[in-house]
Amino acid sequence: MYELESDERPREEGPHMPNGLAKKMSGQGYHFVGKHSATKICGYTKSSLKGGHACYKNTFYGIQSWRCIQATPAIGCNLACTFCWRIIPEEEGYSWNEINAVDGWDDPSMIVEGLISEHRKIISGYRGNKSVTPERWSESNDPAHVALSLTGEPLFYPKMNELITEFHKRGISTFLVTNGTMLNALKRLRVMPTQLYVSIQAPNEELYNRITRPKSLNASWQGLHRFLEVFSTMDTRRVFRLTLIRNLNLTDPEGYANLIKVGKPHYVELKGFVYVGGARNSKRNLSYDQMPVNDEILEFAKMVAGASGYIISDYDSNSKVALLCVDEAAAENRKIHFDK
After folding, report:
1. Strands annotated E in the chain
2. Residue 214 contacts by C-beta under 8 Å, 6 or more apart in sequence?
3. Cα(319)–Cα(272) distance, rounded to whole angstroms?
């Protein structure tokens, strides 16, 4: 980890952001790599490492959660989604322009090696834990999967093709999650991630603007539709991720179904909102009571399935996530196979 200075100027080296913000993120468990990348251990990585619950990606797709790196190659974001766990600079009193924060982009191989190295540093302390077997600890040191979904918008990073290639060369499968605003970056993708996700924040324009609080002109409801049209043509496993908030966007299943018909994902994940991290900031106007329970998510998943023609394939009660599949073939072939 980098030593943090007390002033608020962006550093010449290390995370390219105000030092107070970097210090706050470091305190939350973020490990920075270079100017604009970061990793943080997931709660399910910790749990599965100790023999406990794995995350829904293990249930749905066969990912070994204890071998997963949660990371991002671009800390900044052009949305300020109310439900997001991340720190939004403006809410903490920082004027940092996170959209145009980097004056040069780090090398893809350096990022990959740095993320693997930081992942190993993070889990090194679990070696003496009585709940961690030597076999599982050894496997965790040999990561087989990366979720590019930690914070920010990964497609800000302009060398995504090379980054995905570097992960795949090391036998690491990739789940890339984008917020549906970076259309030109999506069009530049030539090397496909193992799974390509788009976050679907709302079923209609009014809720989209209330929830996403866009910071740039390309982040719009109309832009999302254009993004989904191209997304539907991408030659990889395509996934919609819905984060559902009671009394906010847990509504209008037909609206979600219309977006599904545009984006044509193979899978749709309907996940319950979790009141953690930045989502607790009073400026977000959210509350603990807005976390839906399992029965609500399942009932809503049935309504979205009925409106879209998709089928309910699975449910993970620990993560509160329902899985819809486009057809029986997608349901039967959802476990990924990656050489590692």
Report:
1. 31-33, 37-39, 68-72, 145-148, 173-178, 195-200, 237-244, 267-272, 311-316, 321-325
2. 78, 79, 80, 181, 220
3. 8
Residues near 235 by Cβ (< 8 Å), separated by ≥ 6? 192
What CA–CA distance (Å, rounded) separates 128 from 45? Answer: 16
What tokens appear for 25 in the block? 């993120």
Closest CA to 72 of 192, 186, 155, 182: 155
**Sheet holding 195-200: strands in order across?**
31-33, 37-39, 68-72, 145-148, 173-178, 195-200, 237-244, 267-272, 321-325, 311-316
| DSSP code, position 218 | T
Which H/E stretch holds residue 210? Answer: helix 205-212
Exposed, middle or buried by CB within 10 Å (0-12, 13-18, 19+), for 222? exposed
If phi > 0 it is left, if psi is from -120 to 50 it is alpha, else beta; for residue 29 that is left
The Cα 20–Cα 40 span in angstroms is 18
- pTM, 2 dp: 0.92
What is the pLDDT tens value at each position of the chain, 340 positions in all? 333 334 444 445 568 888 899 999 999 999 999 999 999 999 999 999 999 999 999 999 999 999 999 999 999 899 999 999 988 888 888 877 776 666 789 999 999 999 999 999 999 989 889 999 999 999 999 999 999 999 999 999 999 999 999 999 999 999 999 999 999 999 999 999 999 999 999 999 999 999 999 988 778 999 999 999 999 999 999 999 999 999 999 999 999 999 999 999 999 999 999 999 999 999 999 999 999 999 999 999 999 999 999 999 999 999 999 999 999 999 999 999 876 5
Using DSSP's 3-state secondary structure scheme, residue 289 falls into: helix
Q: What are the extents of the domains in the chain?
A: 19-332
Contact 158, 185 (CB under 8 A): yes
- CATH code for 19-332? 3.20.20.70
